Amino acid sequence: MPEESPGSLTFKLVYYGPAQSGKTTNLLRLHDQLSPELKGEVMTMETKDDRTLFFDLLPLGFRAPSGLLIKLRLFTVPGQVAHDGTRKAVLSRADGVVFVADSARNQEVNNGEAFQSMADNCHRVGLDFEHLPLVVQFNKRDLPNAVPETEIRDRWANAPWPLCFACALQGKAVTETFETLLRLLYRHHALPLALATTHGISEEAFVTGLLGRSS
């Protein structure tokens, strides 16, 4: 459940995936494209091994008709296998996840191992993986060796998670991926948090407020 404090509600969203799949690029492009009421700076920690040894943090938010401040904190996890402890720490208490896969044919094994790692780590930190708002993004669609979209859709046909196809470096489908997660997040939490009845927030208002669009 999101973190609650007097007058505010904070959702934690995590971008998870193998090393160099484009998690940080997603956040950087998202920061460029969004204009919510409250938008903070992106903080990154880069190392020679992996761009995000710890995390990126992108605070976003808007105020509901009731006066409640809805806030988001977006993180990425380090993709390298050696940083599994950090991945668990960042994933802990997450309210929603975007899994960023690398579309390159030669990255299929890495994608599969990272996805299994995410599922295992969700269980280890007490998240209900089966009901967690989750979007799977296949990034780097511009690569010449990208697995065809039809093949990916066939392979994931029985999976319950929405699929998005993106090129984060060019900013393509970055916001669409994020919007898909926001809709899942709202539907998951609307009733228990009385977002509509108490705070006057519809799904569209939730999405447009956090994307910075006029409703």
- The CATH C-level class name: Alpha Beta
> Which structural class fits the helix and strand makeup?
alpha/beta
Strand content: 15-25%
Low-confidence stretches: none
Q: Give the domain tally.
A: 1
Fourth CATH level, the homologous superfamily: P-loop containing nucleotide triphosphate hydrolases
Order of helices and strands: EEHEEEHEHEHEHH
Helical region count? Answer: 6
CATH architecture: 3-Layer(aba) Sandwich
Walk me through the structure.
The chain is an alpha/beta fold and 215 residues long. The protein has one domain: Rossmann fold (3-Layer(aba) Sandwich), CATH 3.40.50. 32% of the residues lie in helices and 20% in strands. Strand 1 and strand 2 form a beta hairpin. Helix 5 runs antiparallel to helix 6.
Question: Topology of this structure?
Answer:
Blueprint (H helix, E strand, L loop, with lengths): L2 E3 L2 E9 L6 H11 L4 E2 L18 E6 L5 E8 L7 H8 L4 E7 L5 H17 L9 E6 L9 H7 L7 E3 L8 H16 L13 H9 L4
Parallel strand pairs: 2-5, 2-6, 6-7, 7-8
Antiparallel strand pairs: 1-2, 3-4, 4-5
Compact overview of the structure:
By secondary structure, this protein is α/β, with parallel strands linked by helices. The chain has helices at residues 23-33, 84-91, 108-124, 149-155, 174-189, 203-211, and strands spanning 3-5, 8-16, 38-39, 58-63, 69-76, 96-102, 134-139, 163-165. The chain has one domain: 3-Layer(aba) Sandwich (Rossmann fold).
